[in-house]
Design brief:
The chain has two helices and no strands.
């Protein structure tokens, strides 16, 4: 009975399928965190350009 338990592979696939979205989530979070400053600067530049364009009219 113990050997049959050790040779059972039925749960391995479920664990692998659970790990795939976990690793994808970690990658997405790391990417967004790394790009946060760049995205923030871009939006600030757009906001300043719109403010300046509105002030000249």
């Amino acid at each position: 009975m113990f050997m049959r338990f050790l040779n059972d592979q039925s749960g391995a696939t479920a664990i692998e399928y659970a790990l795939i979205p976990a690793f994808l989530s970690i990658g997405i979070i790391a990417s967004v965190t790394a790009l946060r400053g760049t995205i923030n600067n871009t939006f600030n530049e757009i906001s300043a350009a719109l403010t300046n364009a509105n002030a000249t009219n």
